[in-house]
Design brief:
Layout: H1 17-29, H2 36-43
Biased composition (Basic and acidic residues): 34-44
Region (Disordered): 33-55
């Protein structure tokens, strides 16, 4: 999305300089967060499905 921090793109949906500036500022304030447990799930071997309880 960010091609140049000073100039917004000249064409396409990101061409509005105000929205581009707001989006750029929000991206700096709130960077994407990846939780550690998501990383652990991706690297762990898949677990077998739990068996239904007998009753």
């Amino acid at each position: 999305m960010l091609k140049n921090a000073i100039q917004p793109p000249l064409a396409g949906p990101n061409r509005n300089p105000v929205l581009y500036g707001v989006a750029n500022g929000l991206a700096k304030l709130f960077p994407p967060v990846e939780h550690p447990e998501n990383r652990a799930r991706e690297s762990a071997a898949p677990r077998p499905a739990p068996r239904p309880a007998r009753g």
